[in-house]
Amino acid sequence: MALMTLTTDFGHRDWYVAAVKGVVLSRVPEAQIVDICHEVPPGDVATASFLLQAAAPNFPADTVHLAVVDPGVGTDRDILAVGAELPTEDVPRRQVFVAPDNGLLHPYLERGHVVTVDRADLFRDAPGHTFHGRDRFAPVAAALLQGESLERLGDPADNPVLFSSPHPERTQQCLRGTVRHVDHFGNLVTDLPAGWLESDAFEVAIAGHVVDLRVDTYRQIPTGRAAVLTGSLGTLELSLDGADLADAWGVEPGTAVTVQLGPGSTRKSRTGFSPADGEQHDPVGVPHRQHSE
Question: According to CATH, what is the number of the domain 3-145?
Answer without folding.
Answer: 3.40.50.10790
